[in-house]
Specification:
The complex is a heterodimer of chains A (199) and B (98). By secondary structure, chain A is an all-alpha fold. In chain A, 84% of the residues lie in helices and 0% in strands. Chain A has helices at 2-45, 61-86, 90-120, 129-162, 166-198. In chain A, helix 1 runs parallel beside helix 5. Chain B has four helices and no strands. Chain B has helices at 7-29, 35-56, 68-91, 94-97. The model of chain B has no long low-confidence stretch (mean pLDDT 88). Classes of the chains: A mainly alpha (199), B mainly alpha (98). At the A-B interface, helix 1, helix 2 and helix 5 of A face helix 1, helix 2 and helix 3 of B. Chain B: It is found in: Cell membrane. Chain B: It is a multi-pass membrane protein.
Chain lengths: 199, 98
């Protein structure tokens, strides 16, 4: 009887997790729409530079290319963390999460540095409609990454404290989905904002 | 829910993503094509990389059937295309109205 109950609960947990991951997918889809609206704004305003500075004068190829590769690599390492988790290995799991975190912090640091340089050179958010759209779009993504970093730190602490349980497993699954999603959004930022900007 | 991807899948996704990041960069920096073809090819490669990450990183094909996540994603993509393409299209009339 005890076995039956335990088995039932386990089954119940699995079902709950499926629903939670599904719910998180729905959040990602709505987040997609948020970014879609910001991309639409950017596309409409990209030539409204108030006959002044454009992105071409400001976007630095080495800067945004390294941001791209750092984020892509961090997406890969968060995947490696999930793989270690499914093998039940907590040390590599925490290790890969920390690598992902450090790469994420490098990314945010580079982005802040990029913004600082641009503002110093005279391109602030109120310079023109183009820069308003640019800063809004790129910093919304940067904010998502920053939130992801705080979130991932807290999950790493929980893993240290509780080990790999069904709850922490679910949390790692969800944060890695979130992290992959941010990298997927960045593909379009890289292409639409930066590559088309320096074209 | 048993299929959580493999090291192979992640590595393939990673390598393809790197290739699809480097090629458009080279095309843009070297001004290989005329502007329209260049735009189409870099956007095409971005879309391709997006789908590669969906399959190899986010394992969109995994999970129990029916795949509500795929349905939700398709609906989301329809919304995004409508918002982006619709905004660009409607704003081309801006100059005529003014």
């Amino acid at each position: 009887m005890a076995y039956a109950t335990a088995h039932h609960e386990e089954h119940h947990d699995e079902h709950d997790e499926g629903i939670t991951v599904m719910g998180f997918w729905l959040f990602l889809v709505t987040d997609c729409i948020l970014f879609g609206a910001l991309f639409a704004t950017y596309a409409v305003l990209v030539n409204h530079t108030a006959s002044g500075l454009t992105g071409k004068e400001f976007f630095e190829v080495p800067g945004f290319v390294s941001e791209t590769f750092i984020l892509l690599t961090s997406s890969f390492t968060s995947g490696l963390a999930v793989l270690s988790m499914h093998k039940g290995k907590i040390k590599p799991l925490i290790g890969w999460l920390i690598v992902t975190l450090l790469l994420g912090m490098c990314f945010v640091g580079l982005e802040i540095h990029e913004f600082q340089t641009m503002v110093h050179e005279g391109a602030t958010i109120s310079t023109s409609a183009f820069f308003t759209a640019f800063y809004t779009l790129v910093s919304t993504h940067g904010l998502h990454v920053s939130v992801g970093i705080i979130w991932m730190i807290s999950i790493t602490i929980q893993l240290k404290r509780y080990g790999i349980t069904s709850v922490t497993k679910r949390k790692v699954t969800i944060i890695s989905l979130y992290w992959h999603f941010l990298d997927a959004v960045w593909i379009f930022l890289y292409t639409v904002v930066y590559l088309m900007g320096v074209m | 829910m048993e299929n959580h991807g493999s090291l192979k899948a992640y590595t393939i996704g990673f390598i393809f993503s790197i290739i699809l990041t480097v090629i458009p960069l080279m095309l843009v920096l070297n001004h290989v094509f005329a502007k329209n073809i260049l735009l189409a090819s870099i956007l095409g490669m971005a879309l391709l990389q997006f789908f590669i990450q969906l399959f190899f990183f986010m394992h969109i094909k995994d999970g129990e059937k029916p795949r509500y996540n795929v349905m939700a994603l398709i609906l989301g993509i329809v919304f995004v295309i409508t918002i982006v393409a619709g905004s660009i299209w409607i704003m081309t009339f801006n100059s005529q109205v003014q």
